[in-house]
Amino acid sequence: MNKKGILLVNLGTPDSTATADVKKYLDQFLMDERVIDIPKLNRTLLVKGIIVPFRSPKTAKLYREIWDENGSPLLYYSRLQAKMLQERLGDEYQVELAMRYQNPSIASALDKLKSGLVESIQVIPLFPQYASASTGSVIQLVMELVGKWPTVPPISFVNSFHDNKLMIKVFAENARKYQIETYDHVLFSFHGLPERQLLKCDHTGSYCLKSSDCCQTLNDTNKFCYSAQGHHTAKLIAGELNLPKEKYTVCFQSRLGKEPWVQPYTTDVLKKLAGEGKKRLLVFSPAFVADCLETLYEITVEYHEEFRELGGEHVQLVESLNDSPVFIEALAGMIK
């Protein structure tokens, strides 16, 4: 009996914390035309001439801070999720894991599915909110690779799962461990994107320009907008926890460069809350399904230290979905 193929794809991670491996990872990641969406010559000069040579040694040090006995946390949890999903689905399915950048590669995972003679392939980019630079990039590469096969099997994609009820439940359950009422404010800190990339998702060409709060409500016009989906995810988690609107803030981290990115920036929100006398912050990062550099270092270390310097006391990360059996049920539900 032919199996159904399932391909889980996360963003990626260096093969090791060695500067050379980090350099390879950053080079492949930042040279993606959907990640830095500028003309190729300009992108090449920027990435290979400035960003990668200067950032690689610094980024390698950061990866060493979060690497543990299991290696890369992102890769460890992603492999665990694939293994748990395979066990949950049974022998009728073949589950493979890939990373958009570095290893295991999408090409190698697709080859395994082809060799397994699967009757169909369903691709689940492990990004709850759709963005051209993440989900869009995965879809494009899969289509390019499979499009070269002599026979192309039925193939489908999960575009996003920002409102998945079981995912929302896991984030809420993870937060309840920390006695939410003891925190002054809650942040939903999403990975940032350049504003221009969000504007490109506005197919009307005018909706985003009419209002500064166009992302606050998800509708037919902005249904594929990363920011709008992020706000919706935050609203659903807040609803699950009975958090009033004034108790939480949606913000965006990991800005690169000086051009405008989607706002408010997490660092600016930290300054504002510290100025208001807030001392303890609980922080979600719902753009990730597995803890990684952006959660384990940027939030847990950098933002914690920054907030303390501003007069605050503590920044507590709500861990990601990681090895939650409920999240595996969520993935199984998307498939079945």
Architecture blueprint of SSEs:
Layout: E1 4-12, H1 19-30, H2 40-66, H3 73-89, E2 93-101, H4 106-115, E3 120-125, H5 132-146, E4 155-157, H6 165-176, E5 185-191, H7 195-200, H8 207-210, H9 226-240, E6 248-253, H10 266-275, E7 280-284, H11 293-309, E8 314-317, H12 325-335
Parallel strand pairs: 1-2, 1-3, 3-4, 5-6, 5-7, 7-8
Helix pairs in contact: 1-2, 3-12, 6-9, 6-12
How would you describe this protein?
The chain is an alpha/beta fold. The chain has 2 domains: 157 residues, Rossmann fold, CATH 3.40.50; 153 residues, Rossmann fold (3-Layer(aba) Sandwich). Helix content is 46%, strand content 15%. The protein is built from 12 helices and 8 strands. The strands form 2 sheets. A 4-stranded parallel β-sheet has the order 2-1-3-4, with helices on both faces. Strands 6-5-7-8 form a 4-stranded parallel β-sheet, sandwiched between helices. Strand 3, helix 5 and strand 4 form a beta-alpha-beta unit. Helix 1 packs across helix 2, helix 3 crosses helix 12 and helix 6 runs antiparallel to helix 12. The radius of gyration is 20 Å and the shape is globular. The mean pLDDT is 95.
Widest sheet: strand order?
2-1-3-4
Structural class: alpha/beta
Number of domains: 2
Q: List SSEs in N-to-C order.
A: EHHHEHEHEHEHHHEHEHEH
Mean pLDDT: 95
Helix content: 40-55%
Number of strands: 8
**Largest sheet report:** 4 strands, parallel
CATH class of the largest domain: Alpha Beta
- Radius of gyration in whole Å, from Cα? 20 Å
Q: In angstroms, what separates the terminal alpha carbons? A: 18 Å
Enter the CATH topology name of the largest domain. Rossmann fold
What overall form do the CA principal axes indicate?
Answer: globular
- Uncertain segments are none
Number of helices: 12
- Tell me which CATH architecture of the largest domain applies here: 3-Layer(aba) Sandwich
In percent terms, what proportion of residues is strand? 5-15%
Assembly annotation: single chain
